[in-house]
């Protein structure tokens, strides 16, 4: 026999899911902060120990410097008499504008521009906060050569 849930039961279940969603969002926020803090600590240790990469448990971790571009606040833009979207359009980046500029897309475009011409144009530099941040990349380490060597060693000893 199937028991039908009432509307109130469904609403309670929905509320539980919303509460869990909020709890998970908070846990994610705390976890992301812990990951970021530890990443900066590891990056500093790599710099201090002059060891730009290390392999741990089958993964290679390497020090990378990434340049981050982010739009400065509207109040500062207004003080300068600038319209960020107008500057992007004038500099040929109007296609980045949807309703907002995605930070990853902006970073990618600005990195490509600086790589291409060597400098950030003055008008863009006035609209953006630019800083460098050390990041850690994580990749599966290539263990094929090690596996082949171990296999060959086993055949020789066997």
User: Strand percentage, roughly?
Assistant: 15-25%
- Considering DSSP H and I runs of 4 or more, what fraction of the residues is helical? 55-70%
State the major sheet: 3 strands, antiparallel
| Number of separate strands | 3
What topology, given as strand order, has the largest sheet?
1-2-3
From the alpha-carbon coordinates, what is the Rg to the nearest angstrom? 25 Å
**Arithmetic mean of pLDDT:** 90
Distance between the termini: 65 Å
- Secondary structural class: alpha+beta
Give the count of structural domains. 2
Order of helices and strands: HEEHHHHEH
What do these coordinates show?
The protein has six helices and three strands, in the order αββααααβα. With 158 residues, the chain is of the alpha+beta class. The protein folds into two domains: 38 residues; 75 residues, no CATH class. Strands 1-2-3 form a three-stranded antiparallel sheet. The mean pLDDT is 90.
């Amino acid at each position: 026999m199937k028991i039908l849930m009432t509307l109130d039961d469904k609403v309670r279940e929905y509320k539980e899911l919303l509460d869990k969603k909020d709890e998970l969002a908070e846990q994610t926020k705390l976890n992301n902060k812990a990951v970021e803090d530890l990443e900066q600590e590891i990056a500093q240790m790599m710099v201090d120990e002059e060891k730009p990469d290390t392999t741990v448990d089958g993964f290679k971790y390497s020090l990378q410097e990434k340049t981050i571009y982010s739009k400065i606040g509207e109040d500062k833009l207004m003080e300068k008499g600038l319209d960020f979207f107008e500057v992007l359009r004038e500099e040929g980046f109007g296609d980045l504008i949807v309703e907002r500029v995605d930070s990853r897309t902006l970073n990618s475009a600005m990195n490509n521009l600086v790589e291409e011409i060597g400098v950030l144009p003055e008008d863009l530099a006035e609209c953006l906060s630019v800083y460098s941040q050390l990041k850690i990349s994580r990749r599966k380490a290539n263990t094929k050569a090690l596996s082949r060597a171990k296999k060959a060693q086993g055949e020789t000893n066997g």
